[in-house]
């Protein structure tokens, strides 16, 4: 969705290394934002994003307008049914994954890629997209890449820009707790 950062760059680098041609889509998708969410203020940095893509060796950027992706009269929807779409993040953001699924479907149909790259940080989204690609027989390989973290352990995210220093410090409890749980599990 733009506001590209090191996590996105890792996806791009992986795609460039594995493919003859790489196209990156930048589209802040209004269909995956709820009515009280941050669509209007979502970080946008198109000039910097396009410079990153050029430096990374991307062959093309697809930057459609909202009207291109959602023309007047569009009636088709993609429904992510059951627990995959309505639990965890889906429970607190009703319709979010349907919006993700619709735009991903449109992008896969428009581009007909061999592979599409997604970050593991958005684990539920990755599961939705994998099911979508399989269920709709797209033939697209969904490649899930590891989460990229800041040196302090916080997963890199465009929305980290919203965090105050205090909120960022509190957010570090998540990767710290996960690392602790993994270490304890490994130790038996």
Layout of SSEs?
Elements lengths: L5 H13 L4 E3 L20 H11 L3 E3 L3 H4 L13 H4 L2 H4 L3 H16 L3 E5 L3 H13 L5 E5 L19 H7 L1 H14 L2
Parallel strand pairs: 1-2, 3-4
Helix pairs in contact: 6-7
Structure in words:
- The chain has 188 residues and is mostly helical.
- It contains 9 helices and 4 strands; from the N terminus they run αβαβααααβαβαα.
- The strands form 2 sheets. It has a two-stranded parallel ribbon with strand order 1-2. Strands 3-4 form a two-stranded parallel ribbon.
- Helix 6 packs across helix 7.
- The longest helix is centred in the middle third of the chain and has 16 residues.
- It is globular.
- The model has no long low-confidence stretch (mean pLDDT 96).
Number of helical segments? 9
**Which term fits the overall shape?**
globular
Helix and strand pattern? HEHEHHHHEHEHH
- Biggest sheet layout: 2 strands, parallel
Low-pLDDT runs: none
Please bin the fraction of helical residues.
Answer: 40-55%
Overall average residue pLDDT:
96
The end-to-end span amounts to 40 Å
Number of strands: 4
Radius of gyration: 17 Å
Q: What structural class do you assign from the helix and strand content?
A: mainly alpha
Strand order in space, largest sheet: 1-2
Percent of sequence in beta strands? 5-15%
List keywords for this structure.
single chain; 4 strands; globular; about 190 residues; mainly alpha
A few lines on this structure:
With 188 residues, the protein is mainly alpha-helical.
């Amino acid at each position: 969705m733009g506001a590209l950062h090191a996590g996105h760059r890792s996806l791009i680098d992986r795609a460039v290394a594995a493919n003859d041609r790489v196209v990156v889509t930048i589209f802040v998708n209004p269909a995956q934002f709820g009515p009280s969410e941050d669509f209007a203020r979502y970080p946008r940095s198109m000039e910097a994003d396009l410079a990153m893509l050029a430096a990374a060796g991307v062959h093309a950027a697809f930057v459609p307008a909202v009207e291109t992706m959602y023309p007047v009269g569009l009636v088709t929807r993609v429904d992510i049914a059951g627990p995959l779409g309505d639990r965890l993040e889906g429970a607190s953001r009703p319709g979010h994954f349907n919006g993700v699924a619709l735009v991903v479907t449109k992008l896969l149909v428009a581009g007909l890629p061999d592979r599409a790259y997604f970050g593991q940080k958005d684990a539920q989204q990755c599961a939705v997209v994998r099911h979508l690609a399989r269920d709709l027989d797209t033939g697209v390989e969904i490649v899930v890449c590891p989460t990229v973290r800041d040196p302090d352990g916080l997963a890199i995210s465009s929305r980290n820009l919203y965090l105050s220093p205090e909120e960022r410090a509190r957010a570090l409890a998540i990767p710290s707790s996960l690392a602790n749980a993994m270490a304890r599990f490994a130790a038996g």
